[in-house]
Amino acid sequence: MEATGTDEVDKLKTKFISAWNNMKYSWVLKTKTYFSRNSPVLLLGKCYHFKYEDEDKTLPAGSGCTIEDHVIAGNVEEFRKDFISRIWLTYREEFPQIEGSALTTDCGWGCTLRTGQMLLAQGLILHFLGRAWTWPDALNIENSDSESWTSHTVKKFTASFEASLSGERELKTPTISLKETIGKYSDDHEMRNEVYHRKIISWFGDSPLALFGLHQLIEYGKKSGKKAGDWYGPAVVAHILRKAVEEARHPDLQGITIYVAQDCTVYNCDVIDKQSASMTSDNADDKAVIILVPVRLGGERTNTDYLEFVKGILSLEYCVGIIGGKPKQSYYFAGFQDDSLIYMDPHYCQSFVDVSIKDFPLETFHCPSPKRCRFENGSQLYNRILLSKCSGLRTSF
């Protein structure tokens, strides 16, 4: 009887903590991110300079954009469209219960898994759609920075807590849908891109069947001694992602593999061997290697001597980003301006979206506004870079 009573108390505690986290991470604060017009902005290998919005003008020497093939003397809207097109994966609530637990949310503990998902998602976007791809509806996303949390958050907390106590849960999806139709796209190429866009997002859905969804990643993490509700470190997540890609049986993913560097060292021969082992066709375009390099940049605090190295990684054409941040608080870093890093924050609780339904809404999978932080404000950073297609491997670190 005592054991049964203890189990019930533990379940009630878990449900209360989950409901509290759902409220805590549902707040949307009034914040605004400002960028200088006097310095270039690098976003995953692309350079933007807002000062030179006239495409006929050239960037000055020493502007900081050193990747000539990827310099864009573009305007703010082009940068926003590029940023918003990246896939944003955050805390979710009300998704199907995770096996072996009472959890229906990852609020408060799943941030590194979410940033790892974002990193892999960008790798898949690069492989299937290319770096030049942007989502046609990106600029239609409403900027949540203009909102603030109100009594709606309190009501949400109350409803979530009551539902958790009663054991009832109603699966909900946002009522707004983009209503994609074939006639919306000007050609077959755009239609193909949108099919892959939706397919990639569906692979990260919060259901037991999603190839790279939270449920599957947690299952793979059990071999590392992790379970739902634990905090996952970046190095552990790297190996979980490697296993998830290895076990994926989707025909589109058979030529893709992940290499996790050991002791911060990437051996070219090992990368080539791993890529060769995944070959399923003679078409080089079907093959890609995602290289993940777990590394700590400093001791108690981030060593600022690594700043130029981090900038160099984020300037690579095939970079898929960096994940890490403060202990037990992971972010997805995608770019920089001067000494500040640009990132997407997974610490925002959104409702479950059923990605198995036709034309599921895409808005909540794209971040409406970037955030910035000074490089030295982070205590730990972990590099994740992708150099896709073995025939075009780059080894400049």
Automatic annotation (TrEMBL):
Catalytic activity: [protein]-C-terminal L-amino acid-glycyl-phosphatidylethanolamide + H2O = [protein]-C-terminal L-amino acid-glycine + a 1,2-diacyl-sn-glycero-3-phosphoethanolamine
GO BP field: aggrephagy; autophagosome assembly; mitophagy; piecemeal microautophagy of the nucleus; protein processing; protein transport
One Pfam assignment: Peptidase_C54
Subcellular location: Cytoplasm
Transmembrane segment boundaries: none
Cited InterPro entries: Papain-like_cys_pep_sf, Peptidase_C54, Peptidase_C54_cat
Molecular function GO terms recorded: cysteine-type endopeptidase activity; protein-phosphatidylethanolamide deconjugating activity
Any one GO cellular component localisation term in the record: cytoplasm
Domain Peptidase C54 catalytic stretches: 77-376
Keywords: Autophagy, Cytoplasm, Hydrolase, Protease, Protein transport, Thiol protease, Transport
Catalytic activity, EC: 3.4.22.-
Role description: Cysteine protease that plays a key role in autophagy by mediating both proteolytic activation and delipidation of ATG8 family proteins.
Family that this chain belongs to: Belongs to the peptidase C54 family.
The protein, known as: Cysteine protease
Species of origin: Rhinopithecus bieti (Black snub-nosed monkey)
Gene encoding the protein: ATG4C
